[in-house]
């Protein structure tokens, strides 16, 4: 087991008050001591039962019955006896002001009742904001990443962090850095996109912002980078690359972990459910120890995903019993268990006190959790108050950051000149679609999709802006789940509305719902637990779209989901404008109206590539050259990559439109020696706004070595910058890329080649949007 010691910057003395039982001052209660010293002292005072209890927790503290929060004392105490390291808030639909008094009481009880006064640490998922209702509801991860604005994202994370602190959450199960390479994956909405560099930049900012220290030296909120590691498909192409081995793990699956782990130092990491080379991650010592610890350098706590240890004997069949699974998991490197149902498997280690190896490993596991508790001030900081919570949640400045994030996150994919609309010259507008009158925020958001308290739907925003009489609303179909429903009466109503209005806006999508199946309008077709065999719009939405387009009425399509949908030429050629809003925040509806009316200039860019056809996977821009060569001889006409699809997807990674136009020119790349005799590439370009209104452009830099030790992708993102340019103005953009950043792993070693490189600079990963320059780096 890796012995965890944090960087000195996180171990400094803190000046918060010390909770002291009676008149006794013990070292672990001395706030002036470093966290690792306090943890070591406390560990030496704990019984075996105390230690085993720290390996798990109580995730579902408060449920909801008949619209009210509900607390089951009997069930809580039963779990608490053996799992008391952390506590969760419970049901998402409970409101923060309802939950906080209950959870505060439970926190105080644990401090008072525990023999050593060991507190819980409160843990929660945190994607769109705080886990329970009542906070600022941001868009989903994929939407915020589509802003390509890391500085704005830092502001959003700061809001989410402070609102978590206001309800006492000091450990979050984010960020997720898995790559959205496969459009069929239902969890793409939780991810930053298909590119490792983009994901690592956003994740690094998330961790640094969350784990910022307060004035007393406490880490504000501990983070959990996840899910190490998550697989990708190979698409079934004849000469395609075969994924497997250390180079694939480190250069593909693990690539977005490297910078966040080494620079931001997340305090914990979650192992994935996946089996890699037939070995489930929960017992994969090679990937948890040899690769993650020794090569990547992760020094924090490693936790399981929910119920993952249990799956070792119920599903994977690599363990004979709960005790066997627990022993194998802790020997492989797992140090903490997430088990929302309250029946954790690590509790079986209570009977392993005579096993010297397990005793040693368990001590190190408990030590890792105790250090997180001491670093975040669990033994020293007072419990949050209702007053402070109310003063923090949904502050005016929080809402403004949220709205700005929505403004920069929505991606315009097509505009034939119809937009922006002129409000004073509009007649009626038909607003159509089952996603037009809900907030589709994703299953990790505390959001009743039809409740106005969570924000305005697109329909409500349009009615407020144009007047209810000017908006003809038609749901278009009651069927948003795949079904055999052939009743098209609702579709015909929508067609009639489109004809009457003369302008149609369709809002179609997938998703909708939370973890709890009893939630109102919980009709999930996307998100965790789902995959997409068909990338058309689910239910009758595809028929609805076709029927409205058949009218010939000018039509705007807005997509709402965590996933992508097929947009073949037969659709694009008949659609005036297309947007992807991804998973909604509370201001997504308002901002979409702003964009349609030209009050906000769209600036979002795709972080995922939209495929041309069902089954045409992989589709991500950074494929290997051998993936694009097809078969041999006559067989080439049958492989989908080439030449059956005679062009690369039009809607590729990095693509997005604006109401103005930009010209990226004067591109140069030069190599220069810097400090310590290191080589760096200096890239520069000018960005000219050639249109008639101010706008923002994302300048993207890609690269590829001419020759490498292992096969490299056709191009890889290495830098990007979002710049605002006034109409007619020119802005100069400069990038410095150290030669080391151009490297890659070969059998666990980092290799940074000299030699010739191609660099591309432009507005998307499409070749037609890029300018190529070449540079030579000395060895």
Automatic annotation (TrEMBL):
SUPFAM superfamilies: (Trans)glycosidases, Beta-D-glucan exohydrolase, C-terminal domain. InterPro entries: Cellulose_deg_GH3 (IPR050288), Fn3-like (IPR026891), GH (IPR017853), Glyco_hydro_3_C (IPR002772), Glyco_hydro_3_C_sf (IPR036881), Glyco_hydro_3_N (IPR001764), Glyco_hydro_3_N_sf (IPR036962), Ig-like_fold (IPR013783). Pathway: Glycan metabolism; cellulose degradation. The keyword Amino-acid biosynthesis does not apply. Its EC number is 3.2.1.21. Pfam families: Fn3-like, Glyco_hydro_3, Glyco_hydro_3_C. Keywords: Carbohydrate metabolism, Glycoprotein, Glycosidase, Hydrolase, Polysaccharide degradation, Signal. It catalyses: Hydrolysis of terminal, non-reducing beta-D-glucosyl residues with release of beta-D-glucose. SMART domains: Fn3_like. GO terms for molecular function: beta-glucosidase activity. The keyword Chloroplast does not apply. One of its GO terms (biological process) is polysaccharide catabolic process. Residues 697-765 form the Fibronectin type III-like domain. It comes from the Eukaryota. Residues 1-16 form the signal peptide. Belongs to the glycosyl hydrolase 3 family. This is beta-glucosidase.
